[in-house]
Design brief:
The chain has 2 domains: 4-177, Toll/interleukin-1 receptor homology (TIR) domain (Rossmann fold, 3-Layer(aba) Sandwich); 182-377, no CATH class. The chain is 40% helix and 15% strand. It has helices at residues 30-47, 70-80, 93-105, 141-155, 166-170, 182-198, 243-256, 306-318, 321-349, 362-377, and strands spanning 4-9, 57-60, 83-87, 109-112, 208-213, 222-226, 229-234, 261-267, 280-285, 291-294, 357-361. The protein is elongated and about 85 Å long.
Length: 378
Amino acid sequence: MQELRVFVLGRMVPEGDFAGDNYRYVRRTKTVSVASIIEGAAAALYADGKMTDPEGIRVFAPEADNRTNIVLSVLNHIESSDLVIVDVSDESPSVIYELGAVNALGKPYILVTGDSLPFYLLQSRAIMQFAFKDEYDPSEQSHVELRNRLLDNYRSPDGAGFSESVFSAYFQGLPIVNIAGPAGIATGYHVNTLYRFGRSGSGFLQKVTKVVEDRGGASPTVWEGRLTALVVVIPDIVEIDNFDDARHDLEFALESEGLPTMSASILEKQEEGEYNKFGFGGMMLRDRPDIVIDIPRTVYPLSMVPRVRIARENENRFGAPAGRRRQIRRLMREFKAILDWNIANERAQNDGAWTRIHFVAQANAASYIRKLVDKSLG
């Protein structure tokens, strides 16, 4: 069923001190009028057969929320809405700040105002000379224009065409929330790699597996047992910008610590008890194949995401290469922070396998793994 959840933003005026859970935190303002007009416009669309559900467009305004933390409430409503109507007629600093959040999140929005717009909004397709009345008036042109835009958003499968802003235009149509990439890359790595090792009951770290060395046509070296650790090596993609070089650098460093490596695959048992040929391929210590080492390949595309590409263009324009390098390292920190957050949630819900997943920066990886081996031997 098609539905459009609409949230109305506008200047909010506090109404005294907090008095209780049912306290109305703001006075009646123009947002209430806009919400009433939207309700009337939605009813008109249903009456005209433009919508099949009388509840197809639902509208909310801050005044309707009795929660004590109005700021948190507003942010929750922005994130959970399909469309945000923003009254900028008062040029309230709070409203402009909220509109910045709407733009950053890439939310579809419609501006309503009087006879002027703030400078950064001059290119926006705002509804000018909006009539702030207590109900929808089909003879009022600004109400009809809002009605038509509501219908366009209602019919849109994703609303993407209604979210452009000066920020998204700068990044060639992408909202700020989608221009970096660490969250998606980190979540993908968690699902496709970390979860396969740590998942409760059936992860690689919780059952007997076979490790088969990848040696082409030669007879492989086979080890069977329980894996003890997964060491995730976080590379510095500024210093070494491709996976193969990073792996060779790590192999050399481990060799210097007396820890030769091999390329190998983890095999799992099929239902009939035989080991299959499809497992996880990675780097392992030749003398301790129970320790798996992985450099996330997925981080290397971070050097090509829109924010970094813009930084590279600015580097050429302004001669500031340090800015691009800092940008990439910030993205890598965000990647690691999201992994930490996911792992913390897993550890809170599942058994101890997740504690055997280790993270270490590549510069410290060889010495860290050496200590891990020595500790297990001791």
